[in-house]
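Entry:
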Amino acid sequence: MAKVISFTNQKGGVGKTTTCAGLCGCLSKLGKKVLALDLDPQGNLSFSLGAETDSSYTIYDVFKSRADIYDTVQHCSCCDVIPANILLSGVELELTSVGREYILREHLSTISDEYDYVLVDTPPALSILTINAYAASDQLVIPMVPEILSLQGIAQLKETIFAVKKYYNQSLEIRGILLNKYSPRLVLTKEVEELANIIAEQLDTDVFEQKISGSVIIAEAPAHAKTIIEYAPRSKSAHEYMDLTYEILGIEKPKRTVQKLGRGRPPKNRPVQY
């Protein structure tokens, strides 16, 4: 049975999709069988992982009972993907039946035995899609950036998460809060990090020890339909995502040996030998 992890925050632009894609690449690199599920009508995760969305079945067809969930799975270079497109934005008004909160969980239960992990990218809104993701998940990861509005988005999530745990999914666990675009030199970053720790305590979770620094490489990878571990495996960003993966899995990260090229500059107090 696969472990289902959803990436969520009511605020947009906090790195939900890049975090989800990054972990898909890292888990696949570790030999895990991964299914990426795009629940955002913008379809950014689908695009980032190279999935086709225009002429194929999507998760929208599953919600509308037009296709079996097996029919929506695409085999991409990094992992399997269930894509989404703009049609998914109409689900909120179209789903009116009793038990609509459990649709995703029921469908995932038929396919989850084939995977080790199912990673779900949720929309930046508290909608029926978000509720479906929470009801189907074992764990939530909450990405944020060191800004006050991002922090406010987490505070607004709190009541929804508690309500879902009470009525739909009592085993739901908040795995942690992730700080993206992290720059320890900024005063605001430290201030927001302190507030994030307070909210984490209220949610009975922690802020991840591993932070993700801002990098242009992270923004470039989706344009090539690759995860960061595929696009720039030796980059600092790739190492950060891999270490985050180890932390989420609860396993000790291996020690890395840094290979230095060349002899480097001579010490200042030592004369240069000719």
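The longest strand covers residues 173-179.
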